[in-house]
């Protein structure tokens, strides 16, 4: 019996409310030995107060030593085994913008990038080109035509867009073309199995035509392709937890992931303050709320320690407004670590705090990586977070006689 079978068997009706505040890429590293992490350097009186009266711990999104992408990281936080439920980034992006992914589709998350005269990448995100500049370029790529397959191109946000290939016999086991570094050319799409060879060939043809259409662009004159993926099959929050769940997020990928696990996307917020306003507006309609904040992650990916500190402080400011709503269980954590020192996701555990009536308080005085090491939850894998939240919310019955 896996965790979902157990929670499905034990979940019980209750009017309690659960809120997950997720600061993307929250975990960090010190700039020098003995120094503070971004979270430790930030002024976070509200999070510290929660930690002092709650319970903390260190969470591994997938497993020890494993660096997760945002998809697996969030799946773990939501209580789904990321090694069992493989959801590609392409499907997440496509679903998040409202594209109906079908059974014969392969969706791909693409980034505009900047290429030099030799075709080498000088900026993997085209200077984080604003959406008002990137969206028309994505629409321009709809001119690409490949015999035997339908091609859909949809703008997403900033440097991101989605490509969907629709046709019979398309596999989704194709390696990313993003080399994850600058100074080199984008990789060729390479199939990992026989059914995906057709997809890889189509992707190569798309790239060839797209590069010609983008040739005159000063920043977004190239592209990389990531997260080739077909439609997954995954049980819903209501099925496995008995929860009516709402998702409040500004970035399409996280909306997509939430939809795939059966959450309802609510509101149209673009800032953290607006997200909390939406939370208050729909408070009486749902049992569980996922509230997502992106910019802790993006500042970490930029390698900007000070900017990530500032984003954590912005995140801290909204905590009192959430607490005022009276959640029975409030969880604050991240989906993975994104230390500015590495300018990328990392394998380091993420600090977690839970505030609830029946929490067994621990010695933690602040919310930080080092304090979490002595927290009452100890070190645990993310798939155990949801059962702990359900238990503290009075939503799990006793197991056995």
Write up what this structure looks like.
- The chain is an alpha/beta fold and 401 residues long.
- It has two domains: 3-86 and 233-392, Alkaline Phosphatase, subunit A (3-Layer(aba) Sandwich), CATH 3.40.720.10; 92-229, no CATH class.
- It is built from 15 helices and 13 strands.
- The chain has helices at residues 3-10, 38-41, 45-52, 70-77, 89-96, 131-140, 197-213, 237-241, 252-260, 272-281, 295-301, 305-317, 319-324, 369-372, 385-392, and strands spanning 18-23, 55-60, 105-115, 121-123, 150-155, 160-166, 222-229, 245-248, 264-265, 288-293, 329-333, 350-356, 378-381.
- An eight-stranded mixed beta sheet has the order 9-8-10-1-11-12-2-13, with helices on both faces.
- The longest helix is centred in the middle third of the chain and has 17 residues, at 197-213.
- The protein is globular, with a radius of gyration of 21 Å.
- The mean pLDDT is 95.
- Alpha-carbon Rg, integer: 21 Å
The helicity comes to 25-40%
Relative strand content: 15-25%
Characterize the overall form: globular
Kindly summarize this structure in a few lines.
The protein is α/β, with parallel strands linked by helices and 401 residues long. It has helices spanning 3-10, 38-41, 45-52, 70-77, 89-96, 131-140, 197-213, 237-241, 252-260, 272-281, 295-301, 305-317, 319-324, 369-372, 385-392; strands spanning 18-23, 55-60, 105-115, 121-123, 150-155, 160-166, 222-229, 245-248, 264-265, 288-293, 329-333, 350-356, 378-381.
């Amino acid at each position: 019996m896996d965790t979902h079978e157990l929670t499905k068997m034990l979940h019980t009706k209750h009017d309690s409310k659960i809120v997950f505040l997720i600061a993307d890429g929250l975990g960090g590293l010190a700039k020098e030995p003995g120094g503070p992490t971004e979270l430790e350097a930030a002024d976070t009186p509200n999070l510290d107060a929660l930690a002092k009266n709650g319970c903390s711990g260190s969470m591994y999104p997938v497993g020890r030593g494993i660096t997760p992408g945002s998809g697996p990281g969030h799946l773990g936080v939501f209580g789904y085994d990321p090694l069992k439920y493989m959801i590609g980034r392409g499907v997440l992006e496509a679903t998040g913008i409202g594209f109906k992914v079908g059974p014969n589709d392969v969706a791909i998350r693409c980034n505009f990038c900047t290429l030099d005269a030799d075709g080498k990448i000088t900026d993997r995100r085209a200077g984080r080109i604003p959406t008002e500049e990137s969206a028309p370029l994505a629409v321009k790529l709809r001119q690409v035509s490949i015999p035997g397959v339908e091609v859909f191109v949809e703008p997403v946000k900033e440097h991101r867009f989605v490509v969907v290939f629709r046709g019979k016999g398309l596999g989704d086991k194709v390696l990313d073309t993003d080399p994850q570094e600058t100074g080199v050319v984008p990789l060729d799409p390479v199939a990992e199995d026989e059914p995906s060879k057709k997809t890889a060939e189509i992707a190569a043809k798309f790239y060839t035509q797209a590069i010609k259409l983008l040739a005159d662009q000063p920043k977004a004159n190239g592209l990389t392709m990531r997260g080739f993926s077909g439609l997954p099959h995954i049980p819903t929050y209501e099925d496995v937890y008995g929860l009516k769940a709402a998702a409040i997020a500004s970035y399409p990928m996280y909306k997509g992931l939430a939809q795939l696990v059966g959450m309802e996307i609510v509101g149209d917020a673009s800032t953290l303050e607006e997200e909390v306003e939406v939370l208050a507006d729909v408070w009486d309609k749902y049992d569980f709320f996922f509230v997502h904040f992106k910019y802790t992650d993006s500042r970490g990916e930029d390698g900007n320690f000070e900017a990530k500190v500032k984003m954590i402080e912005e995140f801290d400011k909204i905590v009192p407004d959430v607490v005022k709503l009276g959640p029975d269980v409030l969880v604050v954590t991240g989906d993975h670590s994104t230390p500015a020192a590495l300018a990328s996701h990392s394998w380091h555990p993420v600090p977690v705090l839970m505030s609830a009536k029946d929490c067994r308080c621990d010695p933690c005085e602040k919310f930080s990586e080092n304090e979490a090491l002595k927290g009452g939850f100890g070190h645990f894998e993310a798939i155990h977070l949801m059962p702990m939240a359900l238990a503290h919310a009075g939503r799990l019955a006793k197991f056995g006689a």
